[in-house]
Amino acid sequence: MKQTLTRIIISLTFFIGLGITQDMENQSLSIPQAYENGNGEPSNQNRLPQLLRDVKVLLSEAFIADVMLDTLEVVYSLNRIFDFLSEADQYG
């Protein structure tokens, strides 16, 4: 029973991984060739969505650091958030 379940899990993991890599190959072919900046985003697109995604990630890291009582990390994350939001304000 355990061996059968293990085989099923391994085969599902393999096929899901195979499907994800094929999707990534198809997506990379459909993206127009353009110069990419440091974030991996093409430079001819608007940077505002990437900035807002970075702010969301930093805000979640700040919340986690606050729960862990790491005040230095919270201050650093909030400082970066304000930098990103001021840059986003210049775009908007």
TrEMBL record:
Q: What is this protein called?
A: Uncharacterized protein
